[in-house]
Design a protein that fits this description.
Blueprint (H helix, E strand, L loop, with lengths): L23 H19 L12 E2 L2 E2 L4 H10 L9 H13 L3 H26 L3 H13 L1 H4 L10 H11 L1 H10 L4 H8 L5 H7 L14 H16 L7 H19 L5 H17 L5 H10 L3 H7 L2 H16 L3 H12 L30 H8 L3 H17 L7 H8 L1 H4 L8 H20 L7 H14 L2 H8 L7 H8 L1 H4 L5 E3 L5 H7 L14 H11 L3 H13 L4 H4 L5 H12 L12 E6 H4 L2 H8 L13 E3 L4 E4 L4 E4 L8 E8 L2 E6 H8 L5 H10 L1 E8 L5 E4 L1 H4 L2 H7 L11 E6 L3 E6 L1
Parallel strand pairs: 3-4, 8-10
Antiparallel strand pairs: 1-2, 4-13, 5-11, 6-7, 8-9, 10-11, 12-13
């Protein structure tokens, strides 16, 4: 049977033709070429990983914290077990005969390259297969998406862009074949006598295009499968329940607004074959079975199902499915979580206010407009052109309306955080590639008549992809945990019983699940409220006894941070902290074995840890220590205690210099050394000496080249001193016992 074509009105002949799909073989070929090119360009990052510090034994360290949650889940640990992200790792590792962490390292660029193929298919359906190649590559390599899908970035960011494009591909194609372009709305308005000026501008309205049967069995099957995939995506991420509701509502609106006259009832029935499975799951496929088994053979059933009263009843069911489950309250809660506040929200009656977390997480921090544009494409002018081009697509192609939620999320990244910017990548890529391709093809049509499309595609692709060749390796940041830290965590499997509790900062809680296989006091899913405050209070304090008391008291509360402050108001919570801090309070016995992990990596987060750890419940305020990550080149003299920054005219005399090397740790506390050697010095002499020393403490990592400077508040904190001090120091030895030390990370057991 000949496939129906979509004929544009003659007055629109100058516009790009609607998609007359080329042969499937040709389309599949170019999709595979796009996937291969995207993967090849992404592998420009690979040389950056040829560093022995990026592996623990034969295992590549991963580049994002959440990846270790899914790896641990694939290994059967924690609540990540059974999640689709974990199951995918487990199944692939078993099929490939390897371990989950290896799959987690290599799979991100593979799946991100498949996104390029999906976008190519979108470009194909929107009218230009050749332009789809450039659009696919731009999407896959867009800085906002690339930054979240580099080697080792196994996280839900991979699927939060893949599934919205994949699950709407079939309904988008169906809409493109059977519905009018949005431009026809203006043409319909032009037919209204009161807006004759529109008629003069756009011409007389044309007859609706001659279309085929929107209830063909192939469409019903494909739409049903897409709907079922859409319903399943809700298991993967919390954003998908909103997107599938938008898709279902959009189909209704498109059928009513852009459906050709006399065919809207058929389109509404066909749209149900996607909407019901998407919202109700397998039970929703009953509609597809009816359309497949009955409508094509029973004309009276076809008349019944396309009756407006029946359709209205079925779409009322769809409306109920869209609105059920308190969806608006859930949306409001998620939006509130991303709309960060500078100050903590007021606590509920009798409740506690904790310090807000969001602004300390890089991926949810606000983006300036210029940064947002640079995350779509390295050339901001190209990003702007892509956004304007997307408006053209919305005008000409009804299927482009399925991208509106992604466009909104991408543009709102200025307020919702940098993690959202990747959603705008396919919007900008398609908006940039398709209009430019149509323009290039028109210009080149006379000179390269048989191959104008291929030449235009090559010109477009090479021009727009050039900046990515340098960008890909430049964006590689290596693993999120260094080898020494991972090595320390792996020793917990030998030293700590399975029911032991590990105290470390929440950023590495998931990594501890994988390497140590033991529960952590906080992790990527438990890092707010008491789970944020308690470990921060331990690591930020300069009172080892208080830290020990707080850890042991938490163990008496079942190692559940929320139980520590259960039933307490602000004054009660602060009184509890003061009581544990008091030297007159007897030592808490506690329950079970507790371990504390400190590492050089933790020092970089010292500002935020000290901010959270110094929180006062009564005043709802905190006082953080000062920390600076030094990027300038410098030279230091251990003997004289001097540091010379590049370009500075004078040296700095710091309070201490601490050097971490492969062979060991060198600590020079010049203030302490002077006071010990000048015990009989007068007050004036002591003050004169202090005036020569700055309140700054330098940390130099000779392995990674990192340089930190911090004030006395951070320097005297537990997270720094447990890493620097002699384990037998009487300040710590009564409360903490060193059980592992590799210079860059230490593990203590709480006495």
């Amino acid at each position: 049977m000949r496939k129906p074509a979509l004929h544009l009105p003659g007055s629109l002949a100058g516009l790009p033709e609607s998609p007359l799909l080329p042969s499937v073989g040709r389309g599949v070929f170019w999709i595979l070429v796009t996937v291969a090119l995207a993967f090849g360009l992404r592998m420009l990052e690979w040389p950056c990983w040829e560093d022995p510090e990026f592996r623990l034994g034969e295992e590549w360290l991963l580049a994002t914290h959440d990846a270790y949650h899914w790896v641990a889940g694939a290994e059967g640990f924690s609540f990540g077990a059974g999640h689709p992200m974990s199951e995918l790792l487990r199944v692939m590792a078993a099929a490939l005969g390897t371990y989950p962490a290896a799959v987690a390292f290599w799979f991100p660029p593979v799946l991100a390259s498949l996104v390029a193929g999906i976008v190519t298919a979108w470009g194909w359906a929107l009218g230009s297969l050749e332009a789809g190649v450039a659009a696919g590559l731009i999407t896959s390599l867009a800085p906002g998406f690339l930054a979240r899908t580099l080697l080792g970035f196994y996280d839900t960011d991979l699927v939060t862009l893949f599934f919205p494009l994949f699950m709407t591909l079939a309904p988008m194609c169906w809409v493109m074949v059977y519905m009018l372009a949005p431009v026809h709305l203006l043409r319909r308005l032009a037919a209204w006598p009161r807006v004759a000026f529109l008629r003069r501008h756009f011409g007389e309205p044309a007859a609706p295009p001659r279309l085929g049967n929107p209830l063909r069995w192939q469409w019903v099957v494909v739409l049903g499968a897409s709907g079922l995939i859409s319903w399943w995506t809700q298991e993967w991420h919390s954003v998908f329940p909103y997107l599938i509701r938008y898709n279902a509502a959009l189909l209704l609106i498109l059928c009513l607004a852009l459906g050709p006259s006399g065919r809207r009832s058929l389109l509404l029935a066909g749209a149900l074959s996607y909407a019901l499975p998407a919202l109700a799951g397998p039970p929703g496929l009953a509609m597809n079975l009816i359309l497949l088994l009955v409508v094509g053979r029973k004309p009276h059933w076809r008349r019944f199902l396309t009756d407006w009263r029946v359709l209205a009843a079925l779409w009322l069911v769809v409306g109920w499915l869209i609105l059920r489950g308190g969806i608006f309250e859930t949306v409001a809660a998620h939006v509130a979580a991303y709309l960060k506040q500078a100050a903590p929200a007021a606590p509920a009656a009798g409740g506690l206010a904790y310090p807000p977390l969001a602004q300390s997480i890089i991926e949810v921090q606000d983006l300036p407009l210029s940064a947002m544009l640079s995350y779509f494409h390295p050339w901001m002018e190209a990003s702007l052109a892509g956004l304007l081009g997307f408006l053209v697509l919305l005008y000409l192609r009804p299927g482009a309306l399925f991208l509106l939620p992604l466009a909104a999320l991408g543009l709102l990244s200025t307020r919702l955080g940098g993690r959202m910017v990747m959603f705008g990548a396919p919007v900008v890529a398609l908006g940039l590639a398709l209009p430019l391709f149509w323009l290039f093809r028109r210009v080149l049509a006379e000179r390269f008549r048989p191959a104008a499309g291929i030449v235009a595609s090559l010109l477009l692709t090479l021009t727009l992809i050039v900046p990515f060749t340098d960008l890909v390796p430049a964006m590689s940041n290596g693993p999120m945990i260094n080898r020494r830290h991972a090595e320390a965590l792996s020793h917990l499997r030998e030293m700590a019983p399975k029911d032991a509790m590990v105290w470390q900062w929440w950023d590495w809680g998931y990594a501890e699940h994988h390497f140590g296989g033991r529960p952590a006091i906080a992790d990527g899913a438990q890092h707010s409220g008491p789970s944020l405050y308690l470990p921060a209070a331990v690591f930020a304090t300069d009172n080892p006894r208080f830290a020990r008391q707080l850890i042991r008291y938490t163990s008496e509360c079942g190692n559940v941070p929320g139980n520590v402050f259960a039933g307490l108001d602000a004054e009660g919570a602060q009184a509890l902290m003061d009581r544990l801090r008091s030297p007159g309070t007897p030592l808490v016995k506690g329950a079970g074995r507790q371990f504390v992990v400190v590492s050089y990596e933790m020092l970089r987060l010292g500002f935020w840890i000290s901010h959270y750890g110094s929180w006062n419940f009564a005043t709802r305020s905190a006082e953080a220590g000062a920390l600076s990550i030094v990027t300038q080149a410098l030279a230091y003299q251990l003997e004289n205690g001097l540091v010379q920054l590049e370009g500075a005219t004078s040296s700095i005399a710091p309070a201490s210099i601490n050097v971490f090397e492969e062979t060991g740790l060198t600590c020079r506390n010049y203030v302490q050394e002077w006071f010990e050697s000048h015990r009989g010095a007068s007050r004036e002499e002591r003050q004169e000496f202090l005036n020569t020393r700055r309140n700054v403490n330098f940390f130099f990592n000779r392995v990674t080249g990192e340089k930190l400077a911090m004030d006395a508040r951070l320097y005297n904190s537990l997270m720094a001193q447990l890493l620097l001090a002699d384990p037998q120091d009487p300040r710590f030895s009564p409360y903490f016992k060193l059980v592992y030390d590799n210079v860059f990370a230490r593990v203590y057991e709480v006495r």
